[in-house]
Specification:
Belongs to the UPF0410 family. The chain is mainly α. The chain has helices at about 1-20, 25-50, 55-80. The chain has one domain (about 1-80). The longest helix is centred in the last third of the chain and has 25 residues, at about 55-80. The model has no long low-confidence stretch (mean pLDDT about 85).
Length: about 80
């Protein structure tokens, strides 16, 4: 059950980040990939700062912020 919740949060975080960054989503698989990678990025950044997020809402916020950072970095690299 935890893996399903993890994938659902990843998909929602990827979709939110895609909409926030003027995307519009990347399809179900793309949203999951962006959200899961965003969770890794967000978790790394937040743990380095010393902030812990708990629960489903906290995980969604951290994943979405991480996915936004990931999309920003990818967009920046593509412009170079």
């Amino acid at each position: 059950m935890n893996i399903i919740l993890f994938l659902l949060i990843g998909a929602l975080a990827g979709w939110l980040a895609g909409n926030f960054m003027k995307g519009g989503g990347f399809g179900v698989v793309g949203n999951i990939v962006v959200g899961v990678l965003g969770a890794v990025v967000g978790g790394t950044v937040f743990s380095a700062v010393g902030v812990a997020a708990g629960g489903i809402v906290g995980s969604l916020v951290v994943s979405t912020i991480g996915a936004i950072l990931l999309l920003y970095i990818v967009g920046f690299i593509k412009r170079l």
